Structures are given as structure tokens and as C-alpha cells.
Amino acid sequence: MNRLNRLKGYFSFFSYTIFGVWNIAFILVIYVGILPNIGISLMQAVAAGEIHWQFLVTFLGFIAVITNCTFLGGWYFFKRPYSLLQFFYGIEAPFFLLCIVRLFALRELNPASSHILTTLLWGIFAFFLYLIGGYLGKKERISQPRRHIFAFYQLISHSLLIIIGVYTALLLLFYAVPIAWWLLKGFFAFQWLGELFSALTDPTFYGYFWVFIILFLVFIFGSTLFIFMPFAFALFYISAGRKVLSEFAEQYGQKIAIAGATGTIAVWLTLFFSLQQQPQNQALEWLAEMPTTNSDRTALIAKSDKIREGLVNAYLLPYRYISTWEENNHIQEMYRGSFNLSIEKANRLQQMYNQLASPVLYQGDRSDVGLAETLYSQFFDTPIQNGDRQAVVKALTSTANRAEAKAGLLDIEEKKVLLTTQEINLSEHQDWAEIELHEVYENQTPEQQEIFYSFSLPESAVLTGLWLGETGDRDSRYVYQVSPRGAAQQVYNDQVQQRVDPALLEQVGPRQYRLRAFPILANQVVNGKLEAPEMHLWLTYQVLQQKQGWALPQLSQKRNIFWTNKTKRFLNAKKQRGYKTWLPAFLPSSNPVPLQPHNIAFPQGYQLIANPLEASEYVFPKGTKIAVLLDTSYSMRERVQDIAKSLEWLTNAGFSGNKKADNDADLYLTGTLNLEPQRIDDLDRVNLANLVFYGTIQPPEMLQQFQRLQGTTQYDAILLLTDAGTYELSDDDAEVPEIDIPLWMVHLGGKFPPAYGDRVLSTLQDSGGGVAVELSEVLQRLATRATLNAVNVIDRYAWKVEKSDRQNEKKDGFSSIAARQLIVGLGQQLDTQQVANLDILHDIAKTNSVVTPYSSMIVLVNDQQKEQLKQAEAKSDRFEREVESGKEELTSPFNPFEVSAVPEPELWVLLGLGAIGLLLVIWQRRRVLVEE
Question: Span 851-860, mean pLDDT?
Fold first, then answer.
């Protein structure tokens, strides 16, 4: 009897020690380590939208549950040592490890890992309910209907407890065996005694002997968690499951109990194995070879949803999985280092572990990330960060791994910088006006941000100024410089990387512009209050009078910037009602006047003549032969009706194969991804039902295909029917064929792209072409321009460029608009492939302070930036601009399953002692700081 009591005493001591030591460690980890170092920044990041809210919920639940478990174990279970041990190993310790893994290892949950996580949480709750109340199906204090519900709930839950106990124990056993071996071998090697003696004789630790001993005991006893965890967890869960099933069988019969248990386990196993079928394997297999026939392409398009799911999963593998199967080698290395196993035996253990850990392991190679990105853009005709932006952002916020300063595709429509004030100042000058836009920004995040606007203006409009300021004081603001487009872009991007203030305004299409400003300074706490420094931006432009009034910039894309109904809006100092858009389409003209003729001379020896056009002067072509190029990429599937209407309109307008027709048109069907293009010489023979829109193709390649099929046929113009396109997929080095007839891009659907590649843009302008959304507009402009012998016909004006001897005339306010059109006209006459000719065009832009496709405005704030710009302007590539794809490089999170070597067993004890010493040093320094 005494021996039994002695054993009970030892067991009670063991239970209390394990619970007490580990709860001290838990509380220290949470309240000394995680909460002050991670908790506050985590809350701020969630508030700023940089980390997904699920992590904050996990974090708060982690703190609440572990804290309550400490008090609950010490109060409710303290007089029952065995129940206390059950509570610790069955509820508190698994929940602690689960939260640690969820916070620091699991990023975005995939279906398989969600299944495991949900099951574990369900099991922990079910085991807790059992510890508190036992089998509830026979509790008389519970009403009869509820007893039935609880009984069947516990049947299902405790059937899962059995499989959870076995599964988790097997998984943890892979770690328990080598850890036990390391501790035993490391302890009995006694090399740690020398380190312990050195630590104790170090003056730093005088007065901390008992603290050191306590922490050492924490380390020793704490190690038992990993050693005994698999056995205790399996024992308690399987035992609880067996007892509940036995009591259920007594109440409802053995057959129902067996059927319920086996059914539950079968469903769980079915889900476990079915969720291992990762979608990327099938998607990559389908796209392994390029389809060569339309039927093959049609079959793949029918599977596009599954292909999208698979490619996104492969692209996000670093965020949805801890490791790949091949990279996961930590079990193999642990057992080789501990037991000197052969690589074959260690690898077999690794493969067994991988089968159990398969929910968090990716079935494929890490190179699938780049492959998926490429295949996605080839198939869906858009970058994956654009096409599935929400999925990518969700994955990124699951790790808060976004450190890029530049606003990219993932920042589209993000709400990080608030537009607090917007002022429009309008100055009318008969048939043209000058408009100033002044905006004030406040960063809502603790990180510096860049704002990005992509917008359009009428083709005759011209941007004339850009300024930045830290206050609304116009005298202290930073002034723009007009610089060659390539030099300005290079300097801006360099300065953003160095986090120094610049702003950049560029023309990236006949009517498209791009505005970027950095940095909008982070918000900060001042005197206990969160404040955001202001950033002021001014932009001016000149625009011709339209029938609707004065055109304002129209937004096509924004990144990071947002506004609310509290944003203050002013027009000529008068407060305006709030509106949801960035700007209205037009401002009303206070005194509409007839269009005026203009004749502006320039010191370069040219004059620009602008003559108003009456409606009767517009004509349609006759005797004209055009080539119609049809974009057959994947995104054009949504424009089939627009294509049909456009071809029908051409036929009705006399562009058909009929010899009696006034005009003629040949149709060129572009070929995507190795499919040969086709030429159809009679529009009446076009059958859109047989067309398959698949893959991606960019304008340079379309024009190359056209040139190959054209042969000796001569055309008066080329019309490329496309949609808004995918500028982000443009290639800087893509060759554009030399074209000596007008090239027009007709964007069906009424939406222009945010930008064009510079080579495409030069071809559009130098050939005398342009962009439009209606075929009728293009053909009318072509015929009218030819009739009037003008370089351009836009916005109710015919524009002509002539040589002139007039010099030193007083500068007319209209000269900025005229300068922009002069550059358009000269671009058709000069070879813009020659840098010397581009310098001529840039000189006109710089003299007249205007933005053009060749000249940008950049705002710099210090002499170092200006010197860098001066050097960039002297380079031979000063006009060469890179495509701003907006792609953000995703960094790979740390892979804890891939190791190069495992420390020797003796080192683990030394590492533990080192950690204890580090805690003492931190404690001592904190006490010294408090005393000071």
C-alpha cells in the first residue's frame, strides 16, 4: 500500500511538474516573447490590410485559450493529477503547438490542410467536453432529446478522436525518437558540464544561480513534452474514443456503434485522400503540349476553370504549402545524423513521413511557379497577378511578405492612400482652356506608398506642368523638368528604390498618360495620436473646347489611391458635392464660343495651322482598300458580338469582295501559339462561329503575321481589331515591322488599354494612324485627312504642319497645344528610329514645357537626383523606355522542412543552455533599464 501511495505521489509530482513548468513556459512565450514583439505589429498589419484577419483571430484565440487553460488546469483539474495530465497533453499542449504552426509555418490554408486543421480543432474540443462531462448520452440532468443529439455527436467526434490520436501520434513520433536520443546522448556525454561551469563562474550571472537552475529544469522537464507527447496524445484520445463508443454501444446497440464509427472514419479517410489530389498536376498535364487544332483548343477552353485553379495553385505553392515533396528532407537528415542510417533507409522514413504530412506538401517542383506564370499568361491572355489578383493578394497577406515600394498590379484598387482634398481650377480662353488639378494625399498605412494613376485625355489635349509639395505653399513646391522618356523613367525607378521623393508624368499612348508619385509618407504616432503627413501634387494641362464642355482626365486604372464621400472637392474655390469617380467627364463651359483658327510659328522653323472643321467637311472613303487584322487571343471571346457588328458595318459601308463595291477589305485572322494565321479576301465568307479565341498574341507579332501574308497586295490603311489588350505582357525587344501606311488600333468594347509599348506607339503615330473605339471614326478621319492634306484630324480641327520663316513671335497661350500637334506631324516626316531626330522632337517639347510620347516630366527634390538625371540624359539610350508591367516579385517564404545539416546531439543541450543564458542577459538588461 505504501508503495502504491509512493507511486501515486511520484505520478502526482510528475503531473504537477509537467503542467506547471510548461505553463510557465507558455505564459513567458506569449506575454514576454510573442505579444510585445509580434502582437502589436500584427494588429497594425491587419488593420492596414497587410496580413489576413485570420491570423489575428488565431493570435487572439491563442492568447485567450492558453491563458484560460493555465487557470482552468490549476483550479478545476488540480486535485485530479491524471485528469490534469489528460488536460495538458490532450488539450493545452496540442492547441499550443497547433497555434504556433498556424502562425509561423502554415500560410494560406489549402483544402487538405484546412481538413486536418478543422479535424484537430474539432477533436480538441470534443476531448475537452469529455473531460468536463464524460459521456453525455446518459446524463439525467440533460433532457432526453438533447441526450440523443449529444450521444450521436460524441459517437462521431470520438470516432474521429481515434483516428486523430493515431495520425497525430505517428506524425509526432518521427520527432520524439531523435529528440529523446539527442537528449540522452547529449546529457551523458557531459560536454555540457564545461559550458555550465563557465556560465556559473561568469560574473554576469552572480546572483542568478537559482534562476539559472529553474530555467535549466524548465529546459529538462520541457523536453519531456516532445518525448511523451505522441504516446500520451494517442493513449488519451484512443482511450476516450474507446470508452465513449463502448457506452454508446450499451445504449444504442453494438451494430449502430460500429456502423457509426466505421462510417465516420471512412468519410474522414475518403476526404483525406481525395483532397491530396492537387489541381496543378492535371492542369500542367493538359498544357504540356501546344494544341494544334481548333478542336483541341476548344476542349481546353472547356476546362479553363480547372486549368485556372491548377495554375494558381502552382504559382502560389510557397504560400499554400510548407515545402515540396522533393525539398522536404529534414526527417531523413535527422535520422542519418542521429542513428547513422544509410541514405536508403533514411529516405524510406522520409517518404513515410511525407505520406502523413502530404496536406502541407506540394506535389511537384518549385520551378512550377515560373512555369505556371508563363502558361497562365499564354492561355488566359493576361498576367496571373492581374487575372487572379484577389487570390494572389490573399496568399501574400497570409505571410505579410510584401515589401515592394512601387505600386504594382496587386495594388489595383487597394485603399492605402486617402485623397483628402481635390481642387480644380479652370481658366477659359475662348475655344481652349487651362485646367489645374491640385490633390492632397494622406497615407493610411505604416509603410511608405506610391500612388499610380493611368488616365486618358482627348487626343488634342496636352499636359503642361507637374509639381510636388509637402505643404500647400506654391512657392516652396518642387518643380518639374522635361526629360527624354527613358532617362526620366530610369531616374524615377532608381529613386523609388532608394526611397527618395520623385514624381513622374508620362504619355504612353495617343491619349493615354501615366502619373506616379513617391513616397507618400507613412502614418506615425505623434503625442499618442496617429497622424499622416500630407503630400501635395499639382498637375496642369490645356484642352480644346468640346461640345460637352471641357474634358477632364478619365481614369482607367489606379493603384493604392482611394477617396470617400468625406474627400473635399473644389472647383474654382467653390466646394462641390462629393462624387464616386475620380473626376467628372466634363466641366461646363461658361461661355461657349465658335472654334477659332490658329497659326503658331516655332523657332525651329515650322508653323502649325489649326483650322476648325464644319460637319459638312467630314467625308467617308471611296476607292479605298484596307487590311483588317483580327486579334484571336483568349480575351476576345467576350467581343464576338462587337466583331460581328464591325464586320457587318464594313460590308454595309461598301468594304466587300463585290466588284461593284466602292471599297475593299481583306481580313487577316491572327494565329496564337503556333496556329497559322489566315487571310480571307472576302468579308462575306467570314464565319465567326468557326473561330476559336485562344492564347495570347501581342500587336508586334500580329503585324509580323500580316506582313508575311500580305504578299504584293497594297493597302491604304491597316485596321487592327482588338480589345483593351494586355500591355503588361508586352516585350521591350519585340520587333515591329516597318509600316508606311496608317496603322489604326480599334479597341472593341469602348475601353482603351492603360498604355502601349513604345515601339507600337511610335508605329501608330509615325504611320499617321492612331487609336479609336469605332470603325466609322477611323475611316472618317482617314478620308477627311486625305482630302484636306492634313497631318491630323481630331477634335473638330484639321492640323497642318508647314515650313515657316517667322521668328521670335510673342508666345501664344495656344502654343502648347500647337507644339503637341507639331511633334505629331514631324513624327510622320522624320525617322524616329534616329536619336538625333528624337532630340529635335524633344527640344520642341522642352521649349514649350509639354509632355509627349518622347518627353516626360519628372519632379526631383535634390541636387543628387538632378545630377543623376543629367547623366542619364547624356546616354545614347535616353529615349528607350521599359515596359512597366506592374508585376511584383513574390519572395519565397522560409522552408523549415529543407535542411542542409542537423546539429550533433551534444549541441542540443548546449543550445538549450545558450537560450537560458540569453534570457538571463535580457532580464538583467531590462532590470538595469528599469532601475535607471
Answer: 95
